Description:
Layout: H1 16-23, H2 30-41, E1 47-49, H3 54-59, H4 68-80, E2 92-94
Antiparallel strand pairs: 1-2
Helix pairs in contact: 1-2, 2-4
Amino acid sequence: MAISFGHDRPWGGVSQREYRRMAQEPWHPLAYRVHFAALGWADRQGHTAFGPGKLAALLGKEGKPLSDQSTTNAVNRAKRWGLVSPRSGAACLVLGSHFFQKGKGAPVPCRVHQDR
Length: 116
């Protein structure tokens, strides 16, 4: 799959490993950490699926996961700020193709978003 964001739209690559690291750094605001997690673990279609409680654990501090409500609030803030798609939730963060594309990896069905 060729990466294209449209005619005359420059783009550059990022290290998903670095975004995974930044998602776990507690000094970043939670909405940005949600965005970093979406970028760090995104598959070829821009979906980042998490098992039950996984995103809360990732966003927690000192080994203590965020509460379900705090996790939901962080995802909702990231959606309001345009950092992840409105289709996102704690079970699957979504990045639009205008934001993220990946040239490698097999398409994997999303257990949350059955339409892809």
